[in-house]
């Protein structure tokens, strides 16, 4: 029970850190890009990842966590995939209307559910699917305005959806199958993500903004906001890997839409951004969908835990249970191998 409560506290802490840091960095970047005229989003993301790696490297040097070696090919492909997905999302925003870009982000949840169902054989109950549907409808009502389609933008959006979904599923799968922590995986993959964006970022930004990041005149206040953005990004990247590792890619996307609603509400109340009744209704529907998702997930987890507890004694007594059957099969294979080696 102690381990379970410690795990739940870790999940709550990761969720809170993710929401707080993400909302903070959105506010910071909005001031940096909208008010101060620094439009180089992809290049800024590469700096975020470089600062994250440097911070984790210092933490590792001070023995705050133990670095665990991971297969270089796995880490490299994982890092490049995540870097490419960020670039594609930014290109999607550049080639599409804001409304279509929001639809692209909304499509990530159903596509993640589809991929996990087909390839990981994960089951989602009808209640979970219904709560996700309500959430997506609510966020769509609140944030999607115009839907202007074009061929190149649609292709970029589809590629962004695929790479983002696969990257987030791998973030969860690698942590569980290779038994590495979120910190260890982020530490190993951040250099590759930073490298791909550091090379492609200035080109993507120049293509989208018609401006050169290296020719930009950096004032002291712009530099201060860039440094602040990079520092906040450490918490954002760390909490992202932690949330996906401790929960699931779908839960992380649900949390992302909660952040969207909070940012919208912040804009309406404090920054006096224009809003309509439709926006408020959308936010309320989305929050209701999130509440249902959280409740149904909690109920299913409790049910699963009670089933596991009730099956615990039976698994020790019956040889026909799946776990013991696997163990028997493994022991039989070991004995057979030993016998073959003697022959």
UniProtKB/TrEMBL annotation:
Domain of life: Eukaryota
Chain ranges of the Sugar phosphate transporter domain: 21-294
Pfam families for this protein: TPT (PF03151)
Stretches that traverse the bilayer: 38-62, 74-93, 132-149, 155-173, 185-204, 216-238, 250-270, 276-296
Cellular location(s): Membrane
Keyword field: Membrane, Transmembrane, Transmembrane helix
Membrane topology label: Multi-pass membrane protein
Protein name: Sugar phosphate transporter domain-containing protein
Organism: Hevea brasiliensis (Para rubber tree)
């Amino acid at each position: 029970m102690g381990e379970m409560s410690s795990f739940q506290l870790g999940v709550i802490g990761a969720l809170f850190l993710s929401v707080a840091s993400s909302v903070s960095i959105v506010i910071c970047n909005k001031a940096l890009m909208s008010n101060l005229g620094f439009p180089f989003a992809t290049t800024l993301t590469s700096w975020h990842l470089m600062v994250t790696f440097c911070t984790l490297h210092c933490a590792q040097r001070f023995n705050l966590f133990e670095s665990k070696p991971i297969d270089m090919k796995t880490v490299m492909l994982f890092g490049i995939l995540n870097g490419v997905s960020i670039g594609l999302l930014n290109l999607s925003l550049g080639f599409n209307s804001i409304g279509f870009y929001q639809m692209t982000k909304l499509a990530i949840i159903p596509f993640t559910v589809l991929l996990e169902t087909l390839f990981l054989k994960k089951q989602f109950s009808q209640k979970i699917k219904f709560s996700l549907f309500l959430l997506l409808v609510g966020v769509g009502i609140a944030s999607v305005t115009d839907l202007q389609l074009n061929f190149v933008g649609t292709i970029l959006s589809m590629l962004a959806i695929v790479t983002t979904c696969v990257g987030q599923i791998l973030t969860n799968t690698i942590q569980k199958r290779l038994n590495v922590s979120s910190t260890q995986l982020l530490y190993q993959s951040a250099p590759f993500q930073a490298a791909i964006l550091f090379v492609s970022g200035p080109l993507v930004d120049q293509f989208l903004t018609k401006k050169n990041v290296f020719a930009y005149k950096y004032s002291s206040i712009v530099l201060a906001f860039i440094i602040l953005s990079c520092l906040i990004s450490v918490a954002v990247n760390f909490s992202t890997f932690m949330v996906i590792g401790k929960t699931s890619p779908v839960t992380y996307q649900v949390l992302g839409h909660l952040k969207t609603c909070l940012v919208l509400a912040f804009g309406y109340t404090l920054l006096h951004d224009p809003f309509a009744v439709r926006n408020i209704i959308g936010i309320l529907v989305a929050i209701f969908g999130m509440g249902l998702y959280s409740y149904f997930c909690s109920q299913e987890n409790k049910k699963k835990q009670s089933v596991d507890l009730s099956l615990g004694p039976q698994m020790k007594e019956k040889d026909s249970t799946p776990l013991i059957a696997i163990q028997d099969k493994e022991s039989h294979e070991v004995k057979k191998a030993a016998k073959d080696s003697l022959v």
